[in-house]
Amino acid sequence: MGKRIERIYQYILENTRSGLGEKKGLSTSEVADHLAIQRSNASKDLNQLVKEGRVEKSDSRPVRYWAAGVDAISSEKYVPSYKENRPQREKAFPQRVQGKPSDRDIFATIIGANGSMKNAVEQAKAAILYPPKGLNCLITGPTGSGKTYFAHAMFQFAKSNQVIAEDKELIVFNCADYANNPELLMSHLFGYVRGAFTGADQEKIGIIDQADESMLFLDEIHRLPPEGQEMIFYFMDHGTFSRLGETGKNHQANVRIVGATTEDPNSTLLDTFTRRIPINIQLPFFEKRPASEKVDLVRVLVGQEATRIQRTITLTEDVVKALISSVSFGNIGQLKSNVQLVCARGFLNHMQQDEIEIDLLDLPEGIRSGLIVLGNRRNELAELSKILEPKISVQPNQNLNNIQSDSYELPYNLYDIIGDKAALLKADGLDQEAINHFISTDINVHLKSFYKDHGFSFNSVNKLSEFVDQKVISVTNQIYEMVRQRLNYDFQQNFIYAMSLHISSFLKKIHLGEERQTNDNIRQMVADYPQEFEVAKEVRDFIGDSFQVAIPESESYYLAVLLVSLRTSHSSGKIGVVVAAHGNSTASSMVQVVKQLLEVDQVTAVDMPLDMPPAVALKKIVDSVRAVNDGSGVILLVDMGSLATFNNEIQRETGVAVRTVDMVTTSIVLETVRKASVIGTDLDQLYDSLRKFRGYGAVTVEEPVTQNHHPKAILAVCASGKGTAQRIKELIQSSLSKRQNQNVEVVTLSVADLRTDLEQIQQRYRLIAATGIIDPHIDAPFISLERFIDQDVDLLLDDILLENDLSFEDEVQLDDQQAKAICVQYLEENFTYINPKKVVDPLWKFSQEIIRDLELGQAQQGFLINFVMHSAGMLERIILRQPLTVGEKELEAMRSDPLYALLHVHVQSFSRLMNIEIPDAEEYYLMELVKNHREKEQYQ
C-alpha cells in the first residue's frame, strides 16, 4: 500500500504543479484511471493523504484533490482573466414568485405540469400527502427524462407542506454502485456492527438511519439484487431492520422511499417488491412531449447557461429547431448536454460581447444535422414553426426555483475555463483560429467525460460499428429516410441498429452462398401489408445497388416483416430471450450492450456466480423465463452446454416452450434479440437459424465445419470439482472473456469422478489442456496447479489457444517462503471471507503434518500447495455454510479406510485451532486428495 499511496501523491503533486488552472485538482476516477488501480483503493489512499495534511480536497461534487501548499506554475507574465477585460454589467435580480418559498407549489415550476407531466405531478402530490406517512413510489422513465430532478421536486414539495422537517436532507443512493456485491450493498443500506466482517473495527450506521423522518431516493433500483429487495420490502412492511452482523430486527426508522428505474419494473423487480410500491410515476419521452414544452425546455436550459455567464443569450429559430431535433436516446439529459455544448461554443466565438448571439455556424455538425431529421417530420416542423419567433432571447437569472440541481449539472463553471484559457493562449501569441480550435476540443472533452458517467454514449454509432461495417450503417441511414417518406409513419428509435444488423447478416449469407427460403407463414403475414412489401422491394434493390450484389427476391419478405415490426412497439407475440452465464456480470454485460443498441425489453440476464448452487440458478432462470414470455416461447442462451440440461425442467415448471442455444457471445445475443423482436417469428425457425449463425464480421469464405466437431474445453481437476477447480475456472473464464472469438469452455472434475466421467467428457469436448491437482493423462498439455498460479494466465492461455508447445523442461522450484507467497496472492485474489495472511500459516502446518504422519514424504511442493488451496476453500465454504456434499455410502467407505483414523486426528486438531466444525463430507475430499497422491506415486 505504501508504494501505491506514494504513486498517487506524486501524480497529484505533478498535476498541481503543472496545472493550467482550467479546473483545480483531480477526481478519484481520474487518479484511478491514470494509475490503473481500483477506484475504491484510490479513494481510500486519497482520504488518507487528506488526513495526513499532504493533500487538500474540494467540497464540490465530484470531489477533487490537489497537493497541499503547492501552487500551480503560472506564466511569468500576468494574464488577466477574461472577466477583467470587459466592464461589469449590472447583475439582474432573481425573478421569483411572491410569497414564502414554503407556501409555493414547487411542481408549478416544472414544464408540462398541466400537460404531459400532469398525471405524474398529481401522483407525486398524492404519494407525499397521503395520510398518515405517505406512500412509497417508483419513478420510471427513459435515460435523461428527469427522474432525479423529479425526486428532488417531490422532496421540496414535502418540506414546503411540513410533511418533512425543514432541516432534513434528501438521502440519495445509487443501487448500481454495489449491485455485484450484495453484502457491501446491505452494509451501506442498513449499516453494520463491529466485527461483522474483516475490517469492521467500529459500528457504522447506514443510509436508512440517515433517512429517518425524511426521504430516501434509490436510483437505478432495478440493480438491487433479490436479497436486497427482500430486505427493503421487509423494512417497508415493519419499519424495522437489522444491521449487518446482527440477528434481530432491533432498529426502527420512518422513511419515505422513492425509487427510480429505466427498466420495466415487472420484469426486473420481484413481484413481492412491486406490490409494496402502490404508485408508479411514469415520465414521458422527450419526443412524446408537445412542441410548446420542448421549446420551453430549451428556454429554461439556455437560461441556466445565461445565468452562469451573466449575459443575454439569443438563439435563432433554426438553432432551436436543431437542438430539439438532435435529441434521440438521451431525452432531456441529452438536450441539456447539447445546449451546454452550443452555448459554450457561442460564448467562445462572442466572448467580448455583452450579448451572446448563437446561429447555425456556432453549432457542431452533429447538432446541426438535426435540421435534416426535422425536415422529414413534417407535423413536428409545422408545430414548431407556429410557436417559434425568428429569435429567442433569454435573460440571466430567470426561471429560478428551489429544486436542487439534478445529476446532469456540471460540477464546475465551463465558461470560466473557456475564458481564462482563451486569455492564456492569446497571451502566448496564438491567433483566434488556433485558440478556437484548441478550446473547442477542450469543450468536447469536458462534456463527454462528464456525461459518459451518466449513461450517455456520445458515440453510440461507434458501438454499433463494433459489430457492423461502417458502410452498412451509412446505407441504413439512407434507407431510414427513404422508408419514412414512402410509408409516412414513424419508426422505433432502434431502426438503425436493427436494420443494420439485418443487412449485415444476410449479406454475409449471400457471400457464403446461402439463400434463405420463405415459408407460407411469412408470405401470409406480408400479404396483409402490401404497402410495406412494395417499399421492401425498393429497399432490396437499393441495398443491391449499394453493395453491387444480387439479392434474392425472397429477402423482400423478410425486409417487409422487419419494417412492420419496427413501425410500432409490438409488445405481444414476441419471443422472449434469457441470457444465462457464469460469472458475476457476464450475462448482464452482454444484455446491456444489446438493450443499448436495440432498445428492447423482452431480453433479461441471469448472472450466476461460480459459487451459486444449481438449484438457485435454475430458479432464477425459471423466474426470468416467466417474466419475458409473451406467448411465443423463449430462447435460452447459455455459456455452457451443461446448462442445456435445464431445458426440460424449465418447460415442465413454466409450461413455456423453451429452446436452448449454448456457447453464447454478444453477437449471438444481438442476432437472437433482433430476430425475436420481429412479429410472426417462429420459435423453432429462430432456434435453427441461431445454430447456423456465423456472426456479423467481415464476409469471408470459411472452411466447412464437420458435424462431429466438438467444442474446445480446458479440464480443471481438484479434490471435489467444486473448490479449487471452480476458482481455476473463474480465472480462466475471466481471461477468456477478453477473447470474444474464442469458444472455449472450462470443465471441472473431481479426482473421485476422474475414472468414471473422463471418458464421457472426452466424447463431448476436444480437451486442449488440463490443470489442477493431478495429471489426468490425456492427449493434451497438463499445467500443474503451482505453475498455473505462478504464471501469467493470459499468456498461458495464449499458448494453449494457439496450440503452442507447452512442454516444461524445468519444474518450478520453490522454497517455503515463495510457495506461501504464491498461496497468499492466490487467496487474496479469489477468496472473500478469509484473511489469507492470517490463515496461511495454520493451513501450512496442517498440511505438512498430514504429509508427514500419513507417510507422504515424497510429496513435492506442488501437492503441499494443492492441499493448502483446497483447505482454504474448505474454510470459506464453512464460513458461508455452503459445505460440499457426498453420499452416505461414500462416507461409510471413508470411515473404514485405515488412513481415516490418522487423517481424522489432524482434522479435529485443526478444527479446534480454527474454532470451527468440519463436516464429514469435507473430510471425505481431503481423504480423496491423499489417496490420489498415493496412487500417483505408485503409478510413477
Find the structural class using helix and strand composition. Answer: alpha/beta
User: Looking at the structure, what is the overall shape?
Assistant: globular
Question: What is the share of helical residues?
Answer: 40-55%
Strand content: 5-15%
Task: Explain the layout of strands and helices.
Elements: H1 2-18, E1 26-27, H2 28-35, H3 39-51, E2 55-57, E3 64-67, H4 118-129, E4 137-140, H5 147-160, E5 171-174, H6 182-190, E6 191-192, E7 204-205, H7 207-210, E8 214-219, H8 226-238, E9 240-241, E10 251-252, E11 255-261, H9 265-268, H10 271-274, E12 279-282, H11 291-309, E13 312-316, H12 317-325, H13 331-349, E14 355-358, H14 365-368, H15 370-375, H16 378-387, E15 391-394, H17 414-427, H18 432-451, H19 460-464, H20 470-487, H21 495-511, H22 520-526, H23 530-547, H24 554-567, E16 576-582, H25 586-598, E17 603-608, H26 614-628, E18 634-638, H27 647-654, E19 658-661, H28 666-676, H29 683-691, E20 712-718, H30 724-736, E21 744-750, H31 754-764, E22 766-772, E23 782-784, H32 785-790, H33 793-801, H34 816-830, H35 836-853, H36 861-879, H37 888-895, H38 898-914, H39 920-939
Parallel strand pairs: 4-11, 4-12, 5-8, 8-11, 13-14, 16-17, 16-18, 18-19, 20-21, 20-22, 22-23
Antiparallel strand pairs: 1-3, 2-3, 6-7, 9-10, 13-15
Helix pairs in contact: 1-3, 2-3, 11-13, 13-18, 17-18, 20-21, 20-23, 22-24, 23-24, 25-28, 34-35, 34-36, 35-36, 35-38, 36-39
